[in-house]
Amino acid sequence: MKALSLNLESSSKAKYVVIADAIRQAIKQGQVAPAEALPSARKLAEQLNTNRHTIMAAFAELVAEGWVEAKQRSGYTVVASLPIQSSQNINKVDTKQTQFKWQFVRKGIMQNPIKASEFKYNFAGGQPDLRLFPFDEFRGYFSQSCQRPQFDDLSYGDSRGLPELINQVSTYLRRMRSITDKEIMICNGSQEALYMVSQLLLQAGEKVAVEQLGYPPAWAAFKSSGAQLIPINQDEKGIIPEHLEMQLKTNSIKLLYLTPLHQYPTTVTLDAERRMKIYQLAAKYSVAIVEDDYDHEFHYKCQPIAPMAADDPLGLVIYISTFSKLMFGSARIGYVAANQDLIQALAEYKTLMNHKNNVLIQQTVSRWMKEGGFECHLRRMTRIYQKRRDITVNILNHYQNLGLPIKFKNPDGGMAIWLDMGKSIFGLKEKLYAKQVYLQTQLEFDLNHKNNKQENSAFNFIRVGFASMEEHELKQGLKLIFSEVYGAELQERL
Length: 494
Ligand SMILES: Cc1ncc(COP(=O)(O)O)c(C=O)c1O
Hints:
The chain is an alpha/beta fold. The protein has 17 helices and 17 strands. Pyridoxal-5'-phosphate is lined by residues 126, 189-191, 215, 259, 264, 292, 294, 322, 324, 329, 334.
């Protein structure tokens, strides 16, 4: 019996595990063939300068894994049926050239390699100021969830979400958004809801009407079912019902995706007249409406207009909202309010995907809501964001007064301003990276542009997210943006 050449890796693992790893490697390399005997424990102990018990423990490990078997009188042998020859051949060929080739049949969303949160001036619209989140208070509620765990809730179970949180959300929706007659389900953020809705309601080739300027992750969710997107034109009042009707007449549209309160990305609030017209069209053509109310809590002018879901006698509105703006995106708490049949189907689909949301987080949020911390944070952040909106408007007015041809409408709510720069913003985003400024531009939100149907020169808008920065940051960040676009011209006017 020839000795094995064993390569003992230096690691923090137990010695017998390291020896088992080395023997396994020697078997894979073909140093000892199937059915051949391994060196005895005594010999290996001598070779490795250790005791026999350690070697026996290593053998026992390999026996348990199915590499080695113990034979009476002949000691330990390699399992005869191990297909070592073939795996040895695989090891010999150039693995780079023969890597397994995946044939993908679906596509997800490409992750942005640029991380907005790493920029000093992050104008990504809809980014809350995480520095102001009451983590200490939240930690208290989280500790309570861990100190007194409800074992029943911690196992699998109702995919609709934790009943206490559903109760809190339903009270909140009734009080703040006048939604009274819908069932509620908690999900992993709005994105999961959008994905599940598209999986449940759309077949390949079916059509979804969307605002021409919109939210690409929602489009991606619809497209994941093979659906086709039909862009609907919008003007300064939002989506145009007449254009929607034209599309409904000529296309068999299954779903309509809308952001009525603060249109994404233009921030326009869809007025009551258009809402009613759109609802009537949806009823006439049997189209369900997905209402994405992503930042309802931040409205400054007055009480925000109630969601379309609050006046939905036919039950055709699927209302989706999120805590990503009041809390943070990675909390992954979103919810759907819809009629019972749809919520039941969504719950069944969620069971298939991931059973349920993280229960400890749900318990924490529901305690936070019950004790009033949620509403207190909401009121505080609304005041702060309103102030930041006003500061941003003042800064923009200042540049307008300097004669820059910029235009914007002071938004009634939300976390961003849709700003016409008065000039093409082509390439602006990339140029600003070097200045530590992160910005989203019209190009990213335009479905026609994404479908390569429009001239590049028509893009003048940027989305100025003001919520996550303080006054000095807003001032400096906007100065960098205007200097980049207007350079010498601006210097002359200053
Ligand atoms: C239009 C829109 N919908 C939904 C969301 C929130 O998504 P989620 O709840 O998946 O974090 C956002 C966040 O940026 C958004 O802008």
